[in-house]
Give the backbone structure.
Amino acid sequence: MDLSIHDVINHSLLFAQMIEDPDLMGKVTEAWKNFVETGQSWALLIGVFIGYFFANFTRF
């Protein structure tokens, strides 16, 4: 596959213009709120604790 610099620039410009909502921090904040409100944060903490306990229990 032989790409010239012009092809690379044209493709990068195409991708650079596909951003629909530039508010990245707003999206991260909303995702974090949803993560906490749905209880997934507790599931993560419990899973890490059980996994750590199980790993230590089975290590010899």
About this structure: The helical segments are 5-16, 24-37, 40-58. The first helix runs from residue 5 to 16. The mean pLDDT is 81. DSSP finds three helices and no strands in the chain.
